[in-house]
Amino acid sequence: MTNTPEPDDLYVDHAYDMVVVSNRLPVDYREGPGGETEWRSSPGGLVTALEPVMRAADGAWVGWAGVADREFDPFEHDGISIIPVPLSADELEDYYEGFSNDTLWPLYHDVIAPPSFHREWWDAYVRVNRRFAEAAARAAAEGAVVWVQDYQLQLVPRMLRESRPDLVIGFFNHIPFPAYGIYSQLPWRRQVIDGLLGADVIGFQRAADAGNFSRAVRRLFGYTTRGTVIEVPEPDGEVRRVVARHFPISIDAGGFEELARRPDIQARARQIREELGNPKTVMLGVDRLDYTKGIRHRLKAFGELLRDGRLNVEDVTLVQVASPSRERVETYRQLRDEIELMVGRLNGDYSTLGHQAIAYLHHGYPREEMVALYLAADIMLVTALRDGMNLVAKEYVACRFDNDGVLLLSEFTGASDELRQAVLVNPHDIEGLKDAMTEAVAMPQRERSRRMRALRKRVRDNDVANWSATFLKALTGSGQVTAGIPDSLQAAIAHLAGAERLLVALDFDGTLAPLVDRPEDARATDRALEAIRRLAAIEDTRVAIVSGRALDSLGEVADPPTGTLLSGSHGVELKLDTGPIQIDLRDAELAKLDRLNEIVESVASGADGAWIERKPAGLALHTRRLSANDGVALQHDAKERVEAELLGITVRTGKAVLEFAVRSSDKGESLNRLRQHVGASVVLYIGDDVTDEDAFAALDGDDVGVKVGQGKSLAAHRVRSPEEVAELLERLADARDAARGGASAWT
Ligand code: GDG
């Protein structure tokens, strides 16, 4: 159900196709001195990123309005439906200031400050997470996408899945996820991970964060993880695939550049420099006043440079904006005292009447002023000890359309994974930091400009719209599959055509061959077969068919050209250049296989139309000729009977087929063996079935995955049908032929 929110029907339940859930709403409630009230946008990057998506998808935003002990009705603001969640003053203290900001925040930032663990804080965290989950569940339409933001709401995904299994649930963690040795301190470590695993996709800032998370899942739950996929067993016996990977967040780069190009803002930047006494070099720090940001380290290094005479207060001024943050948490109050003491001392020691060493500003500023500061700064100092991303670094770069300015960036920020042309520093190494600061001061203009160009390209290419689109694509697949070969896939074909050693790995049924009732009748389309023959004849190009079928059956129906590699029974059997690799079952496995056959035969014998396909290490129960309901019931019965009696059997569900195997293997493992066997530098994999997802999960780097048809998938590209697969293969054969200068034995 979709609706266009009118003021009167905003109270309608289950109305929105897209719901964002975050601790804070994108609007602030303001009460003026005369008692007048208003809602004002708080224009963060997240709002900018999600605004177009929210408008297009008829979205609602669920969150807290920023005032305790007040209830607000849902309303519409600037085209977005706002659904406020109330918090009491006690909850604010225990759930937000306590558990979120004094337990999770320091723990997830590598215990830079010691985390506090209190059971009553945890209780409040659970209670408040449930309230957010309930509000989201009420708002979301059937099958809606719900995107939960950040560490304050880690239990929401599981709570939502329990009440609304129809939803597609995403989670994004804006802060780091720590190594297991640190994470394991959390008394509620299992509950938090279980809460997150309720999502379909869990996003992190860096690949290292996603890796830490997957390791914690393995250590605490023993679940299997393959690449970015975690296999989560559900109470109903099904295995759910959860994707945990990095989606580095970014900024509205165009928006920042637009502000930076405004003449009034440029004039303000000049004025700022004048007010500072026109020093040769302006250094700038912009941070929430937080112990993760490394402000003390920065001040210490700057102070020592002044002390040692390597910098002179006549030439250099440091502007430090420290925006007020979390002032009711004790650690933050102490930090403020320490920083202000340091600033006072340094200014006392080194400022002159005409030149201030440090201009310290404990304020929040409008964005225009921030941009003017970025333009006024010759050197931007980002010295965080640990930071999920650090948007300030990207904002500085986005504003410098003059290709000037130096970014000094801590290695411990997520941004440093992308912004490699910055002057990278370890802020704990004070000598190194000092050297980097003087290097920045002395950096020749040409080098500044070379570095800044590269940085700007990176930030422009991956802006925040890109970030949200990539996340939502991973969450929902590309939605409607359009006819023909999409442009992005055409570009991928061009890239594959130039690969050094290419492996083209293809599923058979539903990919090369249209699905038919009787498996023995399946045949690849003539066009696909012809394209495969051409590809197989091109130098440095190998073709493999990767199927769930037994190798014998695959050889018969696929009729592949000589030299085609085959993988059957989901990788249990392989036919390589060295000949077929026979599986060799142990006695116990053979006995298990016999019993498996007996059990499934007795179940299938009661159902007309069901049949069994035998495989070397298992069997497949086909239910395609039964009605959908009867098929599901029969599969359920077979699975229950097998699992009640036999241990260690791998069960997989395909399209109207249930497969059992006594030796586990999957198409991902098989693809890895094939890749190694032929020494491929790049792989193209095409498949239509859930079992092909293992192969998609095994792709990386420049590899290309193509899913045939609808449904959730890890593949980056899609086509509609085997006919389009044939067209894709034809185009690839053409392009590769051309790229290889006609070095084909076929032509
Ligand atoms: C968390 C993660 C991750 C700051 N002072 C003012 C002001 N700001 C703006 C900056 C920037 C934002 O606040 C701060 O973002 P950061 O990324 O630097 O840091 P956190 O607040 O810690 O954010 C972080 C981020 O989430 C996003 O995922 O990158 O790692 O810790 O946009 O410009 N803006 C205005 N006035 C100020 O005084 N207008």
TrEMBL record:
InterPro entries: Glyco_trans_20 (IPR001830), HAD-like_sf (IPR036412), HAD-SF_hydro_IIB (IPR006379), HAD_sf (IPR023214), Trehalose_OtsA (IPR012766), Trehalose_PPase (IPR003337). It catalyses: ADP-alpha-D-glucose + sn-glycerol 3-phosphate = 2-O-(alpha-D-glucopyranosyl)-sn-glycerol 3-phosphate + ADP + H(+); D-glucose 6-phosphate + UDP-alpha-D-glucose = alpha,alpha-trehalose 6-phosphate + UDP + H(+). Pfam families: Glyco_transf_20, Trehalose_PPase. GO terms for molecular function: alpha,alpha-trehalose-phosphate synthase (UDP-forming) activity; glucosylglycerol-phosphate synthase activity; phosphatase activity. It is an enzyme of class 2 (transferase). Involved in salt tolerance by producing GG-phosphate from ADP-glucose and glycerol-3-phosphate (G3P), an intermediate in the synthesis of the osmolyte glucosylglycerol (GG). This is Alpha,alpha-trehalose-phosphate synthase.
